[in-house]
Amino acid sequence: MASATAVTAAVSLSSTKSTSLSVPSSSFNKSFVFSHRRNVSISGKLSIVRAQVTTEAPQKVVKESKKQDEGLVTNKYKPKDPYTGMCLLNTKITGDDAPGETWHMVFSTEGLIPYREGQSIGVIPDGVDKNGKPHKLRLYSIASSALGDFGDSKTVSLCVKRLVYTNDQGEIVKGVCSNFLCDLKPGAPVKITGPVGKEMLMPKDPNATVVMLGTGTGIAPFRSFLWKMFFEKHEDYKFNGLAWLFLGVPTSSSLLYKEEFEKMKEKAPDNFRLDFAVSREQTNAKGEKMYIQTRMAEYASELWELLKKDNTFVYMCGLKGMEKGIDDIMVSLAANDGIDWLEYKRQLKKAEQWNVEVY
Ligand SMILES: Cc1cc2nc3c(=O)[nH]c(=O)nc-3n(C[C@H](O)[C@H](O)[C@H](O)COP(=O)(O)OP(=O)(O)OC[C@H]3O[C@@H](n4cnc5c(N)ncnc54)[C@H](O)[C@@H]3O)c2cc1C
Ligand SMILES: NC(=O)c1ccc[n+]([C@@H]2O[C@H](COP(=O)([O-])OP(=O)(O)OC[C@H]3O[C@@H](n4cnc5c(N)ncnc54)[C@H](OP(=O)(O)O)[C@@H]3O)[C@@H](O)[C@H]2O)c1
């Protein structure tokens, strides 16, 4: 694996705000991405942080909604009139012995898709379906911060798992859009819709505790959060809370963006915690498979204490199955305090503190 080398790109944000980017070159081919210093203008404002920090129960505190943000754009490009970007980079980021392939890809946007961290885009794959109609769009969580991997707000990145499965007839079937994307070559056009989604937007409070629970490609929105928190400098946002990432993958060769996250930990050891759950290689003390919720259970009381604070925000992304597994451990933790987890979760959701995007 390539070693992590810090590179800096300076970015000026309108006339009054400045933002800079300091990132490692890690597992995918960054010579293309981070080879030079850039000075570019970006239109659009970053959010002003007004959230309060208190230790009161979530339902009692009036907070500024992350969804009511001036400049937040949704559905700018619709399926009938998509934006056509260009693939700039596409690299496999899982090892050859990993079960399945995951690719990191960067598309040009010329700044015309003004997305926020936590949003998704739609992709319309080339070609037609079995009825001769154009394919329908598929949604993908954006894996880059709003500044993008090149730091110029002119690109959007995705983290895509190539879907290949055997059907009931024993035939090997390839997922239409994921295979289209994983096979894209630099220079190829790609039809993009969106941006969409408000559920996974970052909290505005820079002192928040942000617990991120991701399985596989569910890491995408968290890479985007973490770049903003730890690799970029924004005049009006300096993360000074705690970011705690739990990532569940099948094998160590499927660990996504590991070098980047380790670099973040080196840069901000007091503000970033990182825990992996490698399901097919690790077990807990009882010999059970190490799923993300199994790893979380090791920190159960600490996590529960964090969840009692009004500035703790939990985000979950990836496989649908993880939601129930995580609920199960929360039920028993809450019960220790005589709290009904499902009711408590409803309140957390209302306060935008429990955010789920699973598929
Ligand atoms: C909000 C959102 C964000 C998403 N973000 C990402 C992301 O960041 N990265 C990512 O990789 N994906 C993401 N997805 C999933 C993505 O949208 C696609 O669903 C995925 O890439 C598969 O699309 P496809 O066109 O390749 O497969 P399709 O051609 O659409 O085939 C999928 C269909 O194949 C069938 N199928 C799938 N697996 C099996 C199986 N094992 N056995 C039998 N039948 C099966 C099912 O009917 C399934 O509906 C996201 C989904 C949502 C809703
Ligand atoms: N926003 C979204 O909705 C969104 C975003 C990104 C991705 N996705 C979707 O999420 C899925 C991620 O798949 P992937 O192939 O990228 O992941 P992957 O590499 O296969 O990793 C998934 C990990 O989760 C484990 N797992 C399986 N069942 C689980 C359960 N019930 N609870 C907790 N962990 C469990 C797997 O373990 P084992 O395999 O060892 O059982 C594996 O370690 C894809 O279907 C993708 O399309 C959705």
Automatic annotation (TrEMBL):
Record's catalysed reaction(s): 2 reduced [2Fe-2S]-[ferredoxin] + NADP(+) + H(+) = 2 oxidized [2Fe-2S]-[ferredoxin] + NADPH
InterPro entries: FAD-bd_FR_type, Flavoprot_Pyr_Nucl_cyt_Rdtase, FNR, FNR_nucleotide-bd, FNR_plant_Cyanobacteria, OxRdtase_FAD/NAD-bd, Riboflavin_synthase-like_b-brl
Protein EC: 1.18.1.2
GO biological process, one term: photosynthesis
Top EC class of this enzyme: oxidoreductase
Residues annotated to bind NADP(+): S141, K161, T217, V249, P250, S279, R280, K289, G318, L319, E357
Transmembrane helix keyword on record: no
The protein, known as: Ferredoxin--NADP reductase, chloroplastic
Recorded GO CC terms: chloroplast thylakoid membrane protein complex
Compartments, as annotated in UniProt: Plastid, Chloroplast
Pathway: Energy metabolism; photosynthesis
A GO MF label: ferredoxin-NADP+ reductase activity
UniProt organism field: Carex littledalei
Gene3D superfamilies: Nucleotide-binding domain of ferredoxin-NADP reductase (FNR) module, Translation factors
